[in-house]
Design a protein that fits this description.
Elements lengths: L2 H12 L4 H17 L6 H16 L3 H18 L3 H18 L3 H22 L10 H11 L2
Protein name: Tetratricopeptide repeat protein
Organism: Setomelanomma holmii
InterPro entries: TPR-like_helical_dom_sf
Length: 147
Amino acid sequence: MDIHITYHFGLCYRAPGKLDLAAETFKTAAEETRAHNMSKSLLHALCLYKQGCIEFQAGRVVEARSFFQDSLDIREVLKTADCERVRAMHGLARVLDQVAVTDEEKMKQVELFSKAQAIRKNLQGDEYTPEGHIEEAYDGLVDGQFR
């Protein structure tokens, strides 16, 4: 099956809350990207990001942290659009908000959250609301930029 189709199946499974099936599908898509030498692609970063979202939603923040960090690292290497990078920044900031122990981790959380908020504010303009820091808002930034 095409990797993009596998990824979109994951989205379809996640929408009605079939998290285990969605997680397995995103994992399969990520494995397929690695098998096709695409481990530094935006598609691979998207799979990792979605896996991080599911892990975070399930309360597995340590696992989520790894997925979000790896996704952000790929996006930064690729120099992706702000709307793409901000999703991974926000996810990692949410995780660090719960697991940060050292002062360095706490500072990184504040920095990531501040950057994410500034980017979202810039992209949303008049539609920006401070309480809108949810996954859907960040996903919507991508949809809005690429229409």
